[in-house]
Amino acid sequence: MATQYRKAYVPVTLDVDKEGAILPRLIWWDNGVIFQIDQILYKCRATSKKVGGGGIRYTVQ
């Protein structure tokens, strides 16, 4: 049986600096867990072939 994937949108708290750069700070999961982002390790444009769509992917710590 093939694995099924679904896209989920979650709230994110972020800052925007004076040059317009977006800096995510918190991720709010649906179950109430809040994940604090201490550091952005990597940022790139990305697409999702499994569920469709595209945007900016952040690798965070």
TrEMBL record:
**Name of this chain's protein:** Uncharacterized protein
